[in-house]
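Batch queue: ligand-bound targets. Current item pairs a single chain with adenosine-5'-diphosphate. No template structures supplied; prediction is de novo from sequence plus SMILES. Inputs echoed for audit trail.
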Amino acid sequence: MPSAALAGTSASARAPQIGPFVPTARLPRHVARVAQKIGRVTGVAGPVTTIELDAAPAGQAPPRAEIGSLAKIRTRTAHVVGIISSLRQTGQGPGPDTVVVEIILVGEMAHDGKSMSFARGVANFPSIGDEAFLAGHDDLAVVYCKGSVAALDIGTLYQDPSVPACLLADELFSKHFAIVGTTGCGKSSALACILHRALERHQYAHVIVLDMHGEYHRAFGAKAEVFRPDNLYLPFWLLNFQELRSVLTSPEDHHDAQSEILCDAIVVAKRRYADAAAGRLRNRTFDSATGTVDSPTPFRLSDLIAYIDEQLGKLERSYPTLAYRRLKLRIEALASDPRFSFMFGNPNMEDTMVDLLAQIFRVPGNGKPVTVIELSTVPEEILDVVILLISRLTFDLAVWSDGGLPVLLVCEEAHRYIPADDRRGFLPTRQSLSRIAKEGRKYGISLALLTQRPSELDTTVLSQCSTLLAMRLATESDQKVMRANVHDSTFGILEYLPLLADREAIVLGCGAPMPMRVKLNELAEGWLPGSGQVRFTDRWARPNMDRPRLEETVSRWRGRKL
Ligand SMILES: Nc1ncnc2c1ncn2[C@@H]1O[C@H](COP(=O)(O)OP(=O)(O)O)[C@@H](O)[C@H]1O
Ligand SMILES: [Mg+2]
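Prediction returned. Tokens below.
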């Protein structure tokens, strides 16, 4: 059972901190322990049930029904549970103050002989006259706080902070999830809350974080293997033909001709590498009978160039050679570009594929289940290629291992490389991530998308996320996209999006037992992601840049060395 003592917010009630979360003393209960009767059913129309509230006894305040609160209706066989979606004073009932409440039904509570349990879906519909109650603390605990290892308590309920709010780990991870909200509202920290809880309980997890701001190494400390441009080597020969073509050919002129030449050149280069390495390696890397231009086997750029030169030598004088020359120039330029050295830079061409996959995908994990790939200093045009390779390797490894490696791929700032606008972004990267979004779950790949601009994220990818953690969203276009993507009938609670405080989220979809408004747990300083936001008042209070540092910056800038 998740401990309520771990969850919480109040700064005044802190106990000594061990582990990622700031512990707090037990938080005050906001609702009565047991359910309070509030009225009777006066109308039922599909999932919407109307209730007329009882008049409060003279001198007493009525139970406080609010939008988003949980209510339950006693039918003949079960307690049907719903969320209050509207409140209205009619002036038509027995008194002038009759209040009518609409509830959207979402599930049922039943006693199985041992304990109360809750399940989504309604089989026993209420009827006119059934009694309605405002859910009590005990009901909230049954509905929202599943006591099992498969439940991750990540915060507390807004309706009652003494009840932990749990995510259903299997539903959450197996069907992708998204965390959206404006900058600074706590998305990265929310992800860290989820992962810290998951890693506490599952030491054989595999998590890859595409870290756009260089902030996660702080949060995961010794549990993370961190790759930066200077220690990440992703050999170019891991790219498939379509990807190599996008990187190596210039789209403007003779594109088809360049592609044809490149295709032949790659096959020849792969064969030459396999021939040359045949004596050294136990298995032949490339077999002409089974290998194709897409096989991820090593080859040398020098063999590509040699092939192009040979072909140029064989051509008739009058034959147009521009496509050959362009291709050769582009390959040479990329091979000598220091920014691409993570891909083209290793002179010791070896078949390092297994080592590379073992490192990136943590096989074995060696106590570091998280791989953080820091991309904050990677230039835009290269970023796409790195993300492309990581995402496609994730997909292909999952397919070829028959789903043998359950992995979570976290995409920070997802709108930057899976944009809604077709004309933006790098096509192979978009395609690779869309494929994971659509088919990944079949092979045990889970996606976590984080974005501050859901309206700029590819809608088909967003719609594949079955769980949404929606944090504060101020712009109307972003709120609209969220409403359009929520299949839950209780989407009315999204009206709160602009009003949410920091660290607050509305959780919808199958990763939550019920739609819920949550205050996320507070993470302790050393466990928070965060690039150490620039505090101008601190930095301006003492000297910051000096002449030697400026000179060193210019030299790195000129040498294009990060
Ligand atoms: N769960 C949390 N626990 C503690 N501090 C938090 C939490 N969520 C947010 N914060 C504070 O808010 C800041 C911004 O949060 P962050 O997760 O980086 O937001 P976002 O990713 O949405 O830009 C953090 O640096 C931290 O100070
Ligand atoms: Mg962030």
